[in-house]
Amino acid sequence: PPQDDFTVVAPTQPLQAAVGQNVVLPCRLSPALDAQSLEIRWIRHSFTKTVHHYRNGRDLVVEQLRDYVGRTELVKEGLSSGNLDLRLLGVRPSDDGEYICTVQEGSSYGEASVDLEVAGAFFHNPRPWMAALGVFLTLSIGFMVLSALLLWKRRHWSRQLGESSWSLPPTK
After folding, report:
1. How many folded domains does the chain comprise?
2. What does UniProt give as GO cellular component (predicted)?
């Protein structure tokens, strides 16, 4: 039976997980409709590739990203009350990022995003690293230029001193 229109809701604050942990990415329908007959797809925002696909009461693994095979499960107990939570097992640094929960039934469609921050994911926010690298490279280049300039000056002065010492009249 067709459902009324729905909205997909997810937390706005990022979720935090440590490498190796299991984590649940929360998502739900509003109003809390029975979602067992809906098509639910979790995708990675940056790749627009399928992390988990559920349709007609079954999990479909055909389109699933290889990195997620055997590591995801839709929490089925909550489907009848509109929960679309996805359990992700054995979190990896590469899991860091945005996930989008999409729901479709006929012409009704909704989506919401969940941001997962993995502690220990080296480049979750690359800006500080890039800034530090930029400062380091700038200082290194500046130091090399200054060293070359001082070396050149030293040679120049020693050459001038050498020439001027030859031009001194002999002492008696």
Report:
1. 2
2. external side of plasma membrane
